[in-house]
Fold Nucleotide-diphospho-sugar transferase.
Amino acid sequence: MSVPVLLIAFNRPDLAEKTLMRMIEANPSKIYFAVDGARIDKPEELAKVKQVRNLTSLIPTSIPYEVRFSDTNHGCREGVSSAITWFFSKEESGIILEDDCFPDLSFFPFCEELLIKYKDDHQIGMISGDNFFRNKIHLKDSYFYSTYFHIWGWATWRRAWNGYQSTGIQHEELYSVLSKKFFFKRQILKWYNWINGSSSGKVDTWDHQWTFHNWKENRISIMPNVNLISNIGFRSDGTHTIDENSQLANLDLDSIPFPLVHPKKRKLKFLYHIFVEVNYYPNKIYQLVFNLILNYLEFKSSLLILINGNKGEKF
């Protein structure tokens, strides 16, 4: 594979090892390995962080690698975002995985092909490996376009990351961007609170700011028609993913077939966005109605396959 990969890890050596070994299996052009420092008030982390860093011994001599091991702890917001900035100071494009985002092997050539295809297409902000529909909706195309940006295994370009701000997002600009993006006030307020909370440090994360950066630049993302990433980090030692019973925990992996079937038209899938809306803004009535729609579409697709071997309709 001609694409470099970045692995971002911290204090969970078992997860980091599993994801690193999958990276090695994909044989990237180079591995970048970023590990944050242990927290001062948690001295027991020192040994775990050292275990994670020692995983470099598993990287074969045939794959070059660089490390970024922090002496201090920067947290999720600065630790992750600064690692990505470091990565793109050295590479024009690449794949990014956090230690708990375990990919199907086909995720790597999927990203590689699309990184090349959309290299100079400034409307595309990133390529995601996530599909949260659990195979209930089937597409003939290998991927679809979305206005949302899921980062459990993803790829992008330096040209897209440039200008990203983890902090300092101004209230007026934030509200202006969101007001153009959403019609309903509940959507505007929800995203305003998320992005402002992350930017101000009330919430220790970096990804809401990445979504805002792409919206500000009027970009969309690419998502696969099957799920290529399983988040294996839903457990008690997680930072944000601690609910082991979450419907997004440990999702089944699927492989994407090659050659890829590229969409003929660049349009957003309305039904997919309704699904995302329901999950971003939970409401029991909305979820009930949407699940009924999903079940109907699943039945319809199964019936088509039974009758004439059709692999599914476009929705």
